[in-house]
Amino acid sequence: MAQDSYRIQFNTRSEFHRSAGHPPFQAIPAHYYNITDSEAWPVAGLLVLLDGKGQPVRAELHLYEDQPSHVHEAAIRQSRLLLQERYTGDDPLPLRIMQTYQHRDAMHVRLSTVTDATPQTPPRGTSSRLLVAALGIAVMLFLVWLVAFYQPGGTPDETAASAPAGSETPGPNVVAALFTNQSDGGEAEEVLPPSRNAHPGIGIGVRVQIAPGLRLTLRSEPGPNAGEVRGAMESGQTALVIGGPAYTRGDQDTIVWWYVQLDDGTEAWAAANTSTRTVLLPVE
User: Fold this and answer.
1) Residues 189-221: tens digit of each pLDDT
2) What pLDDT, on a 0 to 100 scale, did the predictor assign at position 259?
3) Whether 208 contacts 258, CB under 8 Å
4) Quick one: DSSP state of residue 40?
5) Would you say the C-alpha torsion 46, 63, 172, 224 has a positive or negative sign?
6) Percent over 90 (pLDDT), the chain
7) Is the Cα dihedral 56, 58, 64, 68 positive or negative?
8) Which residue among 117, 217, 229, 240 has the highest number of C-beta atoms inside a 10 angstrom radius?
9) What is the pLDDT of residues 146-201, one digit of tens each?
10) Any stretches that span the bilayer, and where are they (predicted)?
């Protein structure tokens, strides 16, 4: 019986390592939000994975280590509020809550130049499980890099100086920008001057109270006539700040709005000041 012949082709060592080290991956669209505390330092990262139509399919909140529990709780509430205000869908969106820590020192990866980059066609029948696993690894590496660049030990100027030339480092006030008022046409309004009467010590995770002798109406949207009335805070009543700030123009001063949670579970926007006086005060 004649023996079948086989033709065997060997790859060179460099070709083998190149194909093994750079497998073809499929990019998955996603939105990333930087969650910051009252001092504009990142405390968590919110990643929203999207499908081919731009609809959210899963969200992941990565809490940074060495943060107080009340800061983590505020980050969770703010992430839930962000998802409810930014996305729509018929089914509830799963939100995975994880804690991130830096496993080792940051490493610098040398990227291919434009001339070295060669297009690769993804093979047919690529397993979706492998793609999800690859995405998870990529997300964890990105978060480790992000934590390394945003350690509270350095100043914002030092952080910006340590970024590679030409890169875009996420700004520390991404969340604050999400709550900036917008016009009916969807375009952001002009930047308002800093408020003179809003207390500077208020931020996410801070418990506040109404100034003595005042009563404050709470609303579903930031603005004196925006949204619906969701109750009121009486003199001396306290609440926890879980979101914001947002800003509106007053008669003589910029009005700062914070998203608060009352002891009975009510969540609404509260004005921190008027054009002439301070309304919300931090609880001592």
Assistant:
1) 557 889 999 999 999 999 999 988 889 999 999
2) 95
3) yes
4) S
5) positive
6) 23
7) positive
8) 240
9) 666 555 444 333 323 333 333 333 333 333 333 334 434 444 455 788 999 999 99
10) 130-150
> What's the CA gap between 157 and 5, in Å, rounded?
67
232, containing H or E segment: strand 229-233
Phi, psi of 90 (to 5 degrees): -80, -30
For residue 74, the SS3 value is helix
Residue 54: both structure tokens together: 């731009």
242: which residues sit within 8 A by CB, 6+ positions away? 74, 77, 78, 81, 204, 205, 259, 260, 261, 267
The pLDDT of residue 175 is: 36
Task: Note whether 178 and 79 are within 8 A (CB).
Answer: no
The better pLDDT of the pair 230, 112 is held by 230
Q: How far is CA 139 from the centre of its chain?
A: 14
